[in-house]
Amino acid sequence: MVTKLPLAVRTAYADLLDRAQAAAFDRDFADGNFVSKEVKGRRYWYFETKVDDTFQQKYVGAETPELLARIGTHKQGRIDEKDRARTVSGLLRSTSLPRPERGIGRVVAALAASGTFRLNAVLVGTVAYQCYPAMLGMRLPSALIQTGDVDIAQARHLSIAVSDQTPPMIDVLRAVDPSFRAVPHLKANKVVAYAAAGGLRVDFLTPNEGADTDDPQSLPALRTDAQPLRFLGFLIDDPVPAVLLHETGVPVLVPAPERYALHKLIVARPRQASSGKRDKDLAQAAALLTVLVEQSAAELKLAWDDCWARGKRWRQFLGEGLGMIDADVRDQTLAVVGATRSVVPGLRLTFPAAEERFHFDTLSVRIVGEAAGAVVRCSISREAIDDNFKPEAADDKGRVRIVRENRALIERMLRLKYEAMPVETPGAVLLTTMEFESLRRKVERGGRTR
Description:
Elements: E1 3-4, H1 7-28, E2 33-39, E3 42-51, E4 54-62, H2 65-72, H3 81-95, H4 102-114, E5 122-124, H5 126-129, H6 132-136, E6 138-139, E7 149-153, H7 156-161, H8 169-174, E8 181-184, E9 191-195, E10 201-207, E11 217-219, E12 224-229, H9 232-236, E13 240-244, E14 250-254, H10 257-268, H11 276-295, H12 297-308, H13 312-322, H14 327-337, E15 356-359, E16 364-371, E17 374-381, H15 382-389, H16 396-405, H17 407-420, E18 428-431, H18 433-444
């Protein structure tokens, strides 16, 4: 169940994120100077230090107002590890927000300290999902938050462009747990994953930007190889900062929650129907969408438009994924993004019940409909009946009789509006006098929803 957390929680989380980022910035850039370079019209910042009469540079990031502000206050923040630890403890204790398993927290902290996220790598998968409850101020179902893996993604072109490197990944991980070992790729003599004796696994991923391939790709900035995955590029475009609630708070980059939700709809579709991963993907998507349609409608629409524009296969999987989640969440999402129910393959409105009833709360005659196993409240307004059928008896019983006599036509009009017009109300469709005539003309001409 999705429930709202107090405003104080979001405020405390935002403050923790800012302080954790400041502490990491001061740690990463201790003694030296910030310098900038312009590449293809965009400015990038580096931190220059002198080692044995040789100048070395560490990548800081692309210039943004936030980065310039961070540079301007460099070293001004006080060391507040104990305060941050108390904030993390308070958030976990008072709100039941998710905390990572200790081994996972230590691994992500080591990756952060190595510069992994500074070099544009993104924490993905369920560990990233653990960051969203505090970020969104909502308590999400705890069953969707458990995991034993850490997934890190980076675009290959960014890995090359930063001109900076972490230590070798095996060294970073063995500093946390000496039992970490490289896991050879099945088809090539390269390493895309690392596993520890206790079962903890760290996987490195990269977008498959060309033809489909399983061949590992090199990520020079992270000094490891990575498994290419289709659809991953959409997920990690424009990541957002977050803090993992481990010890003093670990600053990371995670996918924007809108992209995470839509990506889960897409990748759930190709999975086997009996797969537990599919169920988890769909449940995570539905939980996030429940929140995002209320909190981040504009951002959700932008992410949808980006996804929709990527091609026929993307649109197919997105629609099929929507068809597998709760009907109300599906309809709320479609309403926010301005899409019709026709994007969901096979979604057909039927009318299994023969009864018509007048409802005084909506001043309409209702017919029970059904689509994909969910009840749909189908109605025609009293005004639409009076304006278009000119009843001699203006009482409600007479209006019910008129609907019964014209039911075949009204069902076709309701079906056309439900399937092919913008969603107005989740789980319902109302035929009003405003669109009555245009819908009647369409159905009489054999109008179709697809």
